[in-house]
Structure formats: structure tokens, C-alpha cells
Design goal:
Strand content of chain A: 25-35%
Number of domains of chain A: 2
Largest interface: A-B, 74 and 74 residues
Oligomer: homodimer
Number of helices of chain A: 11
CATH superfamily of the largest domain in chain A: L-amino peptidase D-ALA esterase/amidase
CATH class of the largest domain in chain A: Alpha Beta
Largest sheet of chain A: 8 strands, mixed
Helix content of chain A: 25-40%
Amino acid sequence: MSTSISPLATPFPDLPAVAGATPRVARAHYKTWDRCDLTFVTLDEGTAVAGVLTQSKCPSPEVEWCRKALVLGKARALVVNAGNSNAFTGNRGRAAVEAIAARAAGQLGCQPSDIFVASTGVIGVPLPIDKAEAGLDAAFNAAPSDWRAAAEAIGTTDTYPKGAVTTAIVDGRTVTLVGIIKGSGMIAPDMATMLGFIFTDAAVEPAFLQAALSAANGKTFSCITVDGDTSTSDTVLAFATGKAGNAALTGDDSPGADAFRAALADLCRQLAMLVVRDGEGAQKLIEITVTGAESDRSAHRIAMSIANSPLVKTAIAGEDANWGRVVMAVGKAGEPAERDRLAIRFGAVEVARDGLAVEGYDEAPVAAHLKGREVEIGVDLGLGDGRATVWTCDLTHGYISINADYRS
Amino acid sequence: MSTSISPLATPFPDLPAVAGATPRVARAHYKTWDRCDLTFVTLDEGTAVAGVLTQSKCPSPEVEWCRKALVLGKARALVVNAGNSNAFTGNRGRAAVEAIAARAAGQLGCQPSDIFVASTGVIGVPLPIDKAEAGLDAAFNAAPSDWRAAAEAIGTTDTYPKGAVTTAIVDGRTVTLVGIIKGSGMIAPDMATMLGFIFTDAAVEPAFLQAALSAANGKTFSCITVDGDTSTSDTVLAFATGKAGNAALTGDDSPGADAFRAALADLCRQLAMLVVRDGEGAQKLIEITVTGAESDRSAHRIAMSIANSPLVKTAIAGEDANWGRVVMAVGKAGEPAERDRLAIRFGAVEVARDGLAVEGYDEAPVAAHLKGREVEIGVDLGLGDGRATVWTCDLTHGYISINADYRS
């Protein structure tokens, strides 16, 4: 983990244990570093699993493995390797994933398809099977860790460990949802080299868990971007151990389904924001809300066009209320827009309306807003009811330094 | 014009006069600078015109004006304002364009629709009509300038003036094509704050001139990107004065049509490359060729995904053969790709093949290639015959400095 912590970092919360999910960490020495880089979370029998995976056409073998295993809906363990993404490594990469799943299945007496694997780091170097196996053995024999140790062990260029917790009342029982996540660059989750893992003691059928996770993903992970670059390895997995004792959630009509979905969405949102706050070189968190679009989908595309614009992001870095660049980004999105209906605000102050600058708007609160750590940009298109909110960070010298100096 | 010249700059060529096209420049004082910022090119009667304009949904009133006037296919003058794009200025912006066209038409005794107007600079500030009119009058009364003075007067954040020339034999006559262009940031011509103007003494019917320009645009201006940000004002106009004495080119079957089209495409390519070479903060010119795609269109989209990836661009800035980032950018493009058929080269050296690193490839020539000013990346998808070449520059601290410090 980097030594220079993002100015947008928030403290790691106090995460409770989740009955049925037990994290352990070990040193697999995937890089020449002295830190834990293999995380092994064992899950009690009966654990349901759901996941959302990168839409990249060049996914890692881990992503392909998880996609297949998710069909079965059940899990006994999660293995996360940090420092090597194992992506774009052909048959050797596939063999490494198979070897990890087989080793863990042997330790736990389950099927390899019960083992979920995720890896993050450099692309193009096959994950060394001997290090993975030795690391797994060390983790299996280690004492359980806390979630913070796991959150640290899954990180790469992250500048701080990221975790979140929430609860919901389901069927008269309080269920706990805990999540850990990593990611800082190559972040534009098409669903983010983002890996996120959620653990709950709720009893949830896999199909409903998947539906709830997919819905939450659409409003959270899919709404963040650091650099518009989508990883080969993006993975979010949710595991439900069923130990809370509620009657299993099977669908929208199940008692507590709404509460669970809301809690899951809240957790995903917390986790997503932690990633943006650790965006490479980030000095400011930017929330972009587009309203008045022809559809929610159109609003989302326009918002992402703004969020991914280097000129908008550098303007915010420079604390410059350069709304002309916002106009540019709306215009290039390719979505329905009418210049002369467009309104733009920074914070609470409308700076442009009906396709031109608001004459004599008060610049002082705008300047003050832009000096803060959290910047809001609002765009109203004046066309319909479509709306979307996305989150990004500014583009600074820090991003260039991190990525022009990182050697493959 | 900036004082720090791009390391990729090329010298301004010796541009000949074009019979029937007469440039003049003046100081309109659009900004507090001591330089010419209004260019006025008068065109003799009988001049044909064609153009390609930004696809932005928030175009400047100049773009809208040109779009309408292009329908008539004839031109008597071009007016270019630098320092103020007049974009997103509502009725006042439209009024400014109309006033300029009316003033110039009055001077020349023609219709306002014979006057083409383009402006570049800050967005959201109405172009001051009084300055424009005084500038026009000064230009009208000035002695003709050379093309270099015009190329300098249309620039904004450009670090050097940009022009190109070529000739073709058409109908037994040598015709001359001269072009000037400006642009450095907000460059992703969806047809680039790119303005380009081409003047030829060839006799060409407007419809054929338009067809030839659109075709050339597809392989040149539409294949360059600096930052993926598409301007509200991108404009390329081609004027044909007809003074060379050839029988007018009317279609593909006209004698010399092929030669003219090839010359126009060559000129457009030269101009496009000059813009990329002046990309904000650029230290290296990057040529990306994608082959083996399902279609040319698919190849173009994948090539642009690579060209616009901040992680690829920073890797090149860092002289790092990080082909994993190229894989990432292929994967996120959303176009057909099969990871295990993918091959990637830097310069002439294949570094990945069949979905994994080429073992033991010679790193020395790759490292040497990356240290140069011009970097080639090749990607073969192994799927079909589709191919495309695009050009971009690296992403450096210079881009951040320029754009985080530029105040609106």
C-alpha cells in the first residue's frame, strides 16, 4: 500500500465479524514486498453467492472462473491474490486458477467450483502456482484475521484500506452486511482493477442475491470512474452465509426483501465512494448529477461523459468554474441535448441557464465551493425526467506521476 | 501563441499563394494580447466550398451558421476569430455571427451567406460585436498577408503555426492545395477546438468537393485525438477558387478526380498530424494501427479506445512497454475481440501473441523505440480484415499544467 494517503481518505470503520465467514491472510510474496498479499475467506456450508464481473472482452481467467462458478450459486471460500492480476496469461493463467481452486477445495473438502478466485496487479505475468499454493497453505493454517487485515491484503496502489458495514431487519432478525474493496486506478467499472467483496449473515437464495446485487451495482459501482479505463479483472462478489436465522429471502415478496436490498445498495454505495476517494492522484471528490434527460440511461451517459472528460477534471483540479468544458462534455456525449435549454450549476449556484451564462451570478460561493474537497456539478437538460448521479475525482499531476512511473 | 514550443513541432513550410484566395490579418483585441487575432480571407467570385463540422450537440453559432451556408456551396470570404469561441452564448452569440457576416458582405458586395465564420477560444462569453467589426474593417483595409501570418492569427493554445501544401495534376493543369490549421487541446474531432482551412485554385463543383473532403476527413481528422474531448466549434472548410483553369471536377469520373482526392487526403493528413504534434503537453507522437478486426469501423473504435486511454498514454509518457494496458483498452472498447487471438507490437517487435506475452522477446529494441519521439503500437485481433490507423500523443504533466491553470 502506498505511503502517501489520499486527502479524501476516510478512517477504516469498526467492522463486526460475520457469522459463517472467516478471513485469513498470508504472505505469498507475489512481489518483493513484505506484506500480506493473499486473502483467504472461508465460508460455512450453505453460503449463497452472487457476483458482477467486468464486461471487458479480455477478462482475466479469474473472471471467467467466477462467471462459471456463479451459475451454481454456492460458495465455500474466496481467495484473493494482490500484486499480479494473472490477466492475459493464456493457459498458464487458467492453470493457476484451477490449481488454487483445487488446493482450497482439498483443504475444505468441497468442490473446486465452490472456490471463488480474484487477482489484481500487473497484467501479463502468469500467477506463480508454487507461491499461490504455499500462500494458501500458510493462510489455511493461520489464525483468523479481522476484516481490516483482509482489506489491506487485497490492496495494490490503494492508499488506504477500504471497508463498510450496514445492517437491516429481515424477518425480525438483524442481519449484518460487511464489505471490503480495493481500487484506485483503471477504474471505470463497466459493471471497477476494482475488487469488492461483501459478506452477510443473512439467509438469501442465490437468484435473489444476484438480482439485488445487480440492481445495486447499476446505481453504485457502475456510476463511478477514475480514468475511464475498465479493468480486465473487475469483480464484486456477495456472499450470504445464512447464519442470521431469518427465513431465506427468495424474492421481492419475501419479508424483509426491501430492507435487505436497500442495505445492500447502501453498502455498495459506501464501497464505491471509498474507491473514488482513493482515485489515483485525487484531490477532490466530484459528484455529477444530470437531470431533465430523455431517459435515465441517457442521463447516465451524459454524466459519465462529463466525469471522464480530462478538461472538466483538470478544471476542477485548478478550482476553475469552467462550465464551458461541461457544455463541451454534454455536447460530445452523443445523447439528446438542446443547447438552448441547458442549465449548469456548481454547488448550489446556477452559472448557466437557457444556453448561456447567468449574468452577474455570485462568484464568491462558487469559488468557495470549488476550493473544498467535495465538488458538485449539476446539469439540467430540460428535456424529460431522466436522471443520474455519478462520482469521479479530479485529474492531477499525481495521476501522471503514478502512471507514468509505474513499470510493468 | 505559447512560448514553449512542442518538442514534436515541425517547421512551417513555404506555402505558395493560391490564386483567388487572399489572406489578411488584424488585431481585434479579443483578449488582452498584442497579436493578430482576426483572419479575413477573401475569395474571388466562383469559389466553391465544402466543410465538415463538429457533431457536438452543443455547437457554437458559427458552426450552425456554416452548416446552413454550406448548403449553397459558394463562398466569398472566411472570417476567423481567435481568443473567444462564442460558443454557448445564446442569442447574443448568434447576433455576433450575423453582424460579422453582414459587415463582410457589405465590404465585398455579396450575400451574408457567402461569408464563413469560425471562432475559437473560451466558451460562454459572447463575441464582442464592436471589436469584431473594427477588426474586420482593419483587416479589409490592410495589405494581404502570407499564409504563415494567417496560421499564427488563428491559433490559441497552439505552440507553433501549422500549415501544409500539396499539388495534383488535374486535367493537365497543376493545381495547388494549401491548408492552415489550429488545435492543441479539446481534440477528438468527431468529424477537432480544431479549425482547419484548405484553399485550392482547382475548379471543383461543391458536391464533389464535399464528397472528397468528407472521405478525407474519415481517414485523417476523425483519426486523431489528444484528450478525447470534442469541441463545440470544430470546423474544417475547403475552398476551391477555380483559378487553375482545369475543367471543373464534378464527380468521380472527371479527369483528375482521383489525383485531386488523393492530394486533398494527403493535405488533410498533414494538417491532422500537425495538430497531434501540438497536443497539449505532448512529448511523443503515437501511431496506433489495429488490424484483423471484424470491420474497419470496429478497428477504428478499438484504436480510439487505446488512443484515449489515460493509462496507455501515461505508460508511453513513462517509456514503459506496458502492453497490459493495451489489452485493457482493447477489452473495454466493447467491440468484438478474442483475448486468446490478440497480438500486440511496439515498433517492429511483437510483445504479445495468442493472448499472452511472447516469451523472451528482445526488450532492447522495444526500449529504444519507446525512448524516441514517435511510437508505434500495433494490435492484431485475428478475427477479420478490418483495419484502422489513428494518431494521438502521450499524457504528461504538461497537459495537467496547461489545463488546471487555464482560467475561464
